[in-house]
Amino acid sequence: MTVNRKRIKSRPAAVLIGFMGAGKSTVGKLVAELLGVDFVDADEEIVRVVGRSIPEIFAEDGAPAFRDIERRVVLDLLTRGGVVSLGGGAVMTTAIADALAEHRVVYLSIDPAEGYARAQGSDRPLLAGEDPETRYRELLNERHDTYAGLATVAVDAGAGSAEQVADAVVAALADYLIPERNFP
Ligand code: S3P
């Protein structure tokens, strides 16, 4: 389960990355509860800051503008405490990937069939085209190595309930979560 070791900053307690449908928000919330720290979802923070939904931002401003906002919001969140979950594409922004090198990063991996079953029918702009399942698989293929390369630990998000996955995340992070005073 452990992917690599690195020099780690004390906050946030953990950053969850992974593809659409992996359950980053649900599991992140549960991990935060287990650790007794705050939880923040980067997409929700973007919606709060901009005052519009993510589909609206993509439709009205375009993907590059969304990525720009996402970069600013995520870099700010990485200076705060708690558990943070990132949108699936955030790691493809170089400044975010670079910043993650110093954090405890949990890659919630998901089998493509299971992930697509969970993500389909949502209003995610990247799955709004003609053949969303093919698009889902292509994007996951493109991103998998980036997720894996940034991960401190990787946990299979398809292995059990959200509660069981959250338990597995906390167990996997145990080596990296030693001094309680580091939890904000
Ligand atoms: C995106 C994933 C979404 C959201 C946006 C773009 C992506 O977040 O940030 O629609 O590029 O994979 P989730 O991973 O939470 O669905």
Which key phrases capture this entry?
184 residues, alpha/beta, Rossmann fold, five-stranded parallel β-sheet, 5 strands, 10% strand, binds shikimate-3-phosphate
Question: What structural class should be given to the helix and strand makeup?
Answer: alpha/beta
Helix/strand order:
EHEHHHEHEHHEH
How much helicity do the residues have? 40-55%
- Rg over CA atoms: 15 Å
Query: Main beta sheet, described?
Result: 5 strands, parallel
Fourth CATH level, the homologous superfamily: P-loop containing nucleotide triphosphate hydrolases
Adjacency order of strands in the biggest sheet: 2-3-1-4-5
Domain count: the total is 1
Structure, explained:
The protein is an alpha/beta fold. The chain has a single domain, classed as P-loop containing nucleotide triphosphate hydrolases (Rossmann fold, 3-Layer(aba) Sandwich), CATH 3.40.50. The protein contains 8 helices and 5 strands. The chain has helices at residues 24-35, 42-50, 54-61, 63-77, 94-100, 112-119, 132-150, 162-173; strands spanning 14-17, 39-41, 83-85, 105-109, 153-156. A 5-stranded parallel beta sheet has the order 2-3-1-4-5, with helices on both faces. α1 packs across α8 (162-173). The longest helix has 19 residues, at 132-150. The protein is globular. The two termini are 26 Å apart. The structure holds shikimate-3-phosphate (S3P). Shikimate-3-phosphate binds at residues 20, 24, 43, 54, 87-89, 124-126. Substrate binds at residues 43, 67, 88, 143. InterPro entries: P-loop_NTPase, Shikimate/glucono_kinase, Shikimate_kinase/TSH1, Shikimate_kinase_CS. It is an enzyme of class 2 (transferase).
